[in-house]
Amino acid sequence: MSNTQTPPHPPPSPHPSHLYHIFSKGSGFIVGRKGAEDRSGLPKAIYTLNPEITDKEGGRLWTFEPGSRLGHYKIKAGGNAVGDRHALLWAFLDKTEQAQATEWIVTPVPQAGPDAYIILSPDDLVGWAAAKELHPEHEQIRVQPLISGRSHPPYYPPHEVFIIKRAKE
User: Which top-rank group of organisms is this from (predicted)?
Assistant: First the structure.
């Protein structure tokens, strides 16, 4: 029998060198940074982007690095750690901000389909939520309390569920 612990929620990747795409379950739109960003060192917003007209490279490629605690991950978009600022999701370019970026808990939601996850803060109080409007393109990902239905397993609305798929390398 092995002494190694397994995380309470299996990560989408056991190895940080794997690259992933994240899609909103609600809209099917890809999640990431815009292709055209200003060149400042300011944080860059994370949006839902139409995959039919958006390149899936660059800031739309994600990595999951093990965090400081078991089951926690530093999630990076285009190589920059993402975190919550004013209830919105941002990629931090500044080294100090990157070091302080949120470590996230990536929780499988198999009842929502294959590769389906919710992404929560370490205190489980808030998580990622995409736009639920009819036209979700270029809507910034919000960080807010998630709604879950009182069922077993719990039901999460599609705009709170994300599909995480390994990118073709």
Answer: Eukaryota
Surface-to-core class of residue 45, CB atoms within 10 Å of its CB (0-12 exposed, 13-18 middle, 19+ buried): middle
CB 103 within 8 A of CB 145: no
Q: What is residue 160's DSSP assignment? A: G
| Gap between the Cα atoms of 51 and 68, Å rounded | 33
Quickly state the pLDDT bin for 35 (edges 50, 70, 90): confident
Q: Which CATH number fits domain 20-166: 2.30.29.30, 2.80.10.50, 1.10.3660.10, 3.50.30.10?
A: 2.80.10.50
9-26 in b/e form (b: 16+ CB < 10 A) is bebbbeeeeebbbbbbbb
90-116 tens-digit pLDDT: 999 998 888 888 899 999 999 999 999
Looking at every residue in the chain, the average pLDDT score rounds to: 86
Return d(Cα 152, Cα 58) in angstroms, integer. 38
Pairing of strands 62-66, 47-49: unpaired
Q: What does the block give as tokens for 61?
A: 């490629």
